[in-house]
Design a protein that fits this description.
147 residues; mainly alpha; Rossmann fold; 3-stranded parallel sheet; elongated
Length: 147
């Protein structure tokens, strides 16, 4: 709320709508992501951080806390990772991205496309399947060698 209130107070959100999506069906969340330019990640220290990755897969430019695990995909080339607790830096970054979008929308939209490409390339169902099979093969091999 601090970040949003700072942005509202400074008038940075005059042309934007903040849409919280708590307890919405998955299809509605996906629609919101696809219709949105930005995703503000207010996550806390955790593993992977699925919401920003899902938003990025839909073409949103993610700004916010990486939560530790999000460092893997919240990369400065196509997103704006913020260190946990940096409320002022978070608000400042959102303002800068909005200004950059007003000056050159194509550059920010391109970041969203690159974010979507990255997520799809690095977290595809095919890669997940290969990694699961590889993990089980290693477990089985280790088990067989220990007998």
């Amino acid at each position: 709320m601090q970040v949003v209130n700072i942005l509202k107070f400074r008038g940075a959100l005059k042309d934007f709508e903040i849409i919280p999506f708590i307890n919405l069906p998955q299809a509605e969340v996906a629609r919101i992501y696809k219709d949105s330019l930005l995703f503000l990640s207010f996550g806390y220290p955790e593993g992977f951080g699925l919401p920003p990755a899902e938003a990025m897969a839909c073409g949103c430019v993610a700004i916010g806390f990486h939560g530790g695990g999000g460092r893997e995909f919240l990369r400065p080339e196509f997103s704006y990772p913020i260190e946990q607790g940096d409320i002022v830096g978070f608000a400042r970054t959102v303002e800068e991205v909005i200004k950059a979008y007003e000056l050159n929308p194509a550059a920010i939209l391109d970041k969203g496309r690159r974010a979507a490409d990255f997520i799809r390339d690095h977290y595809s169902p095919e890669k997940e399947e290969a990694e699961v099979i590889s993990a089980w093969q290693a477990i089985i091999l280790d088990f067989e060698q220990s007998r």
